[in-house]
Request: fold
Amino acid sequence: GAGVSQSPRYKVAKRGQDVALRCDPISGHVSLFWYQQALGQGPEFLTYFQNEAQLDKSGLPSDRFFAERPEGSVSTLKIQRTQQEDSAVYLCASSLVIAGAGELFFGEGSRLTVL
Amino acid sequence: GENVEQHPSTLSVQEGDSAVIKCTYSDSASNYFPWYKQELGKGPQLIIDIRSNVGEKKDQRIAVTLNKTAKHFSLHITETQPEDSAVYFCAASINAGKSTFGDGTTLTVKP
Reply:
């Protein structure tokens, strides 16, 4: 596809369930970011990959959050034992170059609702 | 860490008027300042950006100004149109790495 693709677009989970959110970046994009956007707020940084290397995970809110990008393309954000405060839109963004020069292209996000 | 404040949180203008959104940042090391437009149910889309070696940048009806000394930057939209209605976010980062976003401005352009 032409843009960043995220799936699922909507996910409803019961508290305590595990969820996995997928991001397909634009082909060839080196950098990949995950952001969390709560209702009515700006996106907040979670983690950054350069190819398959996770160079920054300082924004992950707890050890229940885990992200991977094993082959340097598709990335998965996993949340274990979901809590109500995890309800948010999770945005993935990719860039052609390493962080430092390129425009970020965002996907449409995965909206997670934890009941 | 970086802190970005954005105001106003809501802005309503008549079609054809100008709109100005202002942001301040705290980390003097920040050197890349993008502005994003987010429509309902969509991801943010870059509309203009500025780097710290430039004071002003313009792209058709959109302009951004940066005052490094005061740590202020602003988005100016002239001749607003109803399709400009959306949520606008400013952000700051070092070398276009991880960005710190403002809380957004909901712009409504009334026809």
Q: What stands out?
A: Chain B touches chain A at residues 4, 6, 34, 36, 41-46, 49, 89, 91, 95-104 (CB under 8 Å). The CA atoms of residues 33 and 50 of chain B lie 5 Å apart.
